[in-house]
Amino acid sequence: MAGLFLAAEVVAVRQTVSTLRSITHEPLYSGFVNEDYTQQFEVKEDNWAGFSWFKKYKFELEQWEDDKGKEMDIDQKVPMLVTPAVFTVKGRMDVKIGDQEFELIKPHITGTNAFGHYSWRVVPKGQHDEVLFTIQKRKFDDDCKLGLFNCKAVWKIYKGRKGDKSTLIYYGIGDSDDQDEPEFKFYHSRDEYKNNKKNWAAKLEHKKHDDSDGEDKFKVKVRPSEDAALILLSVACVDQVADAKREPEEEPEHA
Question: Per the domain annotation, does 3 fall within a domain?
Fold first, then answer.
């Protein structure tokens, strides 16, 4: 089914094309799953009056693309808003998608665990023990030699709490560990990436960073039958890491 947020006149022009994949888990928000088209979104960081601690992430559906590469302009705002909470111990982000509310919370106060991985849990609002998904940025990918050579940026999204390979939903990998200008593709597994790099499920590209107000823009492509809401939610996590990598640590003051 096409995304429920699309206007009726746009839905009317849908064409029947072959479904490329079948989603293997309960999506975060089923209204964003489009079975027919690759969806192209823009994700914009909005810092109120240039203050990053009052930021919001806003989303827009720009285009549909069929399996022959034909594009249709949509240019419609998506009913999704991510708002990082200010001065919370676990860096909470409030999430509203349609009529549903969620939270992104960090399981570790510092934002990283003992192995240096950034991690967020997706939970229903106010239900922190009910973990729907885990979004994690690994310090090193599986091919990184002693953490020194051939290192690539890797993001993993799990169903529920982080577990073994059976709970892995998406495996995101970039060309290099360049987290301040992130660009990478999501696959369903590392093996899928190794066997056919063109068979990606979603693609994320950092388009712009505005030094004047600190705002970032991302382009996100999500192929048919993929969990678009979950992929879009991961962009907020990616941007949080990009900001941390981009901003130099403050020097301690000396008396």
Answer: no
Asked if 124 and 113 count as a contact pair (C-beta separation under 8 A), the reply is: no
- Domain containing 240: what range? 8-246
* Closest C-alpha to 62, from 86, 89, 44: 44
User: Looking at residue 158, which CATH number applies to its domain?
Assistant: 3.20.90
For 183-208, the pLDDT digits (tens) are 889 999 999 999 999 999 999 998 86
Contact between residue 141 and residue 154 where contact means Cβ atoms under 8 Å apart = yes
Q: Residues 75, 63, 84, 81: what is their CA dihedral angle, to the nearest 10 degrees? A: 50
Amino acid at 57: Y
**pLDDT digits 0-9 by tens, 206-241:** 886 565 555 789 999 999 999 999 999 999 998 888
- DSSP label at 67? T
Q: Which of 136, 170, 138, 135 is nearest to 152 (CA)?
A: 138
Residue in 92, 91, 96, 184 with CA at minimum distance from that of residue 137: 184
User: Is residue 233, in this structure, part of any structural domain at all?
Assistant: yes
pTM attached to this predicted model: 0.81
If one counts the domains in the chain, the total is 1
Q: Is 235 inside a domain boundary?
A: yes
Grouping H, G, I as helix, E, B as strand and the rest as coil, residue 242 is helix
